[in-house]
Write a structure and sequence with these properties.
heterodimer; A: 503 residues; Beta-Lactamase; Hypothetical protein af1432; 3 domains; 6-stranded antiparallel sheet; 4-stranded antiparallel sheet; 19 helices; 54% helix; 14% strand; elongated; B: 85 residues; alpha+beta; Arc Repressor Mutant, subunit A; 3-stranded antiparallel sheet
Chain lengths: 503, 85
Amino acid sequence: MNKNYNLESISNKDSLIFKYKKVFNDFLGSKTCWFFLPVIDESIDINLLKEKLKCECECNIVKEKERNYLKCIKDIERDNLLNSVIKDNKIVSFKCHADRNGICIPLSDQGRVYGVVIICNILSSLDKKILSFINVLKEIISDLIVKEAELKKLKETLHPRAIALSTIHTVHRIIGSTLELGELLPKIARLCIQIIRANRCTISLADENEKYLVPYVTIDLRDCEAKSRKINIGKGNIGKVAEDTQIYKSKNCVSLPLLNDKVVGVLTVWDKQGGANFDIYDVEILAVFAEQASVAIKNAELYEEQKKMIVESVNSLSALLSVQIPSPYLHNVGFVEIVEAVGYKSGLNQSELNALRYASMLRNVARVGIPGEILLKPDELTKGEYELVKQHSREMVELIRPLEILKPAIPILIHHREKYDGSGYPSGLKEQDIPLGARIMSVVEAFEAMIADRPYKKSMTISQAVKEIKKNKGTQFDPKIVKIFLELFNKGVIENIVKSHRG
Amino acid sequence: MNIKELLKSELHYKILKFFKENPSSLETIKGITSWIGENKHKVKEAVDEIEKHNFLIKHESDDVTGYGLTYDEKLIKKLDKYLKK
């Protein structure tokens, strides 16, 4: 038995023993001194006893007259009193100062004595009645102390486990809600470093042929430019982790397989912060973490496949639309590239960029079914023709609403003909009410129209078109978007795209 | 505000003590609130302030934000020193 008992609380005046002290004193009608001595390696530290007698005894006689205190000690030490109390687990009495009585009460758990309560300065004689009462007291106090100690130990064991569980839950929620693999893997690595307190983490994924582990992300707190090498599966400690699907652990490295129905990759951490070694607790946490990471990676891969299928479908649809309604100047790919470049610079996140990409690929959806003479009319549209275009655009865009992944693109498609000052269509939206993607597409579409040759007008040069865009900022176009567009133009980005994708 | 001033507030002290005692933990605001037993909104304000001072690191996703103890060993030593006081 190896239990750490809560000995400090036993010395505390509010503790169980002192509660019973009052009962005992009331029973005896006398003021007694009580102290608890822990038993360590089956013995008691006699110096501790002397200390406690000096400091804790409430009896003034004992405190003031050292010989009385020494008498107590002499008696206790005589005949090896304490050792016999511990060995035999029996209550033993002794003579205290001024002919008073003292008693040593062993407190035990399953037959083993873990401490002794010494009561001295007892006025009454220790008759059968009193000894019987003390025996009952002994059992009660022993049990209560053991229970208190067990509760404390339980709390000490459960509390860190509860915190660890809560941490794993938070990790699960963070990585579970990220579906883009490019965002997910660095997130997993950073979280791993956070909860394991490692300095470095690498996530490598198995290639298609399951021959190599290709490092996808390496984060090292000490080195921002850290990179990892490609590893042959089956070679070296980490390669073997992928082959055998067994955890590898050394003092400063833990490597775990990421598994679904097969090996997805390997997660490796190095160098615990503060120089400590990785322990079994770290491996336990990492094992749970790796399982969660594997599921999240699988979901992200499925999402990528699904997205790829949808993008291919959108591409086909876009190609079909292009046949129906050829782009005025830029090949559709070029248009999409310019829109994406502006979108990226505007700070759109990945899902917003995806929506913008789909909208720019499908920009011709709105025109399908509109008579050619209206589409290509050189003069201003009549009110009736204008209403027809507005109505028709809306209807055609609604056709793609059932496609879940294209839903975010719909507001962009509907509103990319709005004008910043509110004079556009179909809704007359103004400024920030116009979706950002629509404001971006509006600039690029106008630019494309300006550099295109039409039957009714000659094309502008790229520089002329850019000047025109600049002129209309604040009225037709969002000034912030125009600024970004101009920055890209000044860097030569726009021109390069136009030149490589002339329709 | 330096760490001395940060730790003057009992709430800030409790939050920092929690993370110092549990350096591997990653908790949401709700989680921190349940461990230290304080008002959720006050905890959020305090955590944001502590995070601005770089004693905590934020890990975000669309749905949830978790907070963990900084990796910076200098800051951790500073924190240790002032928590002991």
